Amino acid sequence: MSLAVLAREFYDSELKARLEPSHCGQFVAIIPQLRAFFVDCSFVAAALAARAAHPGQTPFVIRVGHDAAFHIGSAMR
After folding, report:
1. Cβ–Cβ contacts within 10 Å for residue 64, how many?
2. pLDDT value at 75 more than 80
């Protein structure tokens, strides 16, 4: 399975209910193989915290409470 799929499964099964009430809109960097996660207001800060704690591992970043980490542009016309 891909990193994205593993991270999303971990988020949905274990982190969603825990993080959404108090961290909605923040970013969570997930290393699903280690069941490790790092929350921050900044995408970069969350990713760097994960990399610092687990060098050599690749984190996947999700925006808490959203379908995507970023939305580009405005509404489609």
Report:
1. 21
2. no
If pLDDT is split at 50, 70 and 90, which confidence band does 76 have?
A: low
Structure tokens at 66: 């959203």
Please give the C-alpha separations between residue 53 and each of 12, 18, 27, 50, 68, in angstroms, as whole numbers. Answer: 23, 21, 16, 5, 24
pTM: 0.88
The predicted-structure confidence for 24-53, as pLDDT tens digits, reads as follows 999 999 999 999 999 999 999 999 999 999
Give the CA distances from residue 72 to residues 2, 30, 67, 75, in Å, rounded to whole numbers and listed in that order. 24, 22, 13, 9
47: which 2 tokens? 């990713």
Cβ distance 23 to 57 under 8 Å?
A: no
Report the SS3 class of residue 58.
coil
The H-assigned helical ranges of 1-77 are 3-10, 16-23, 43-53
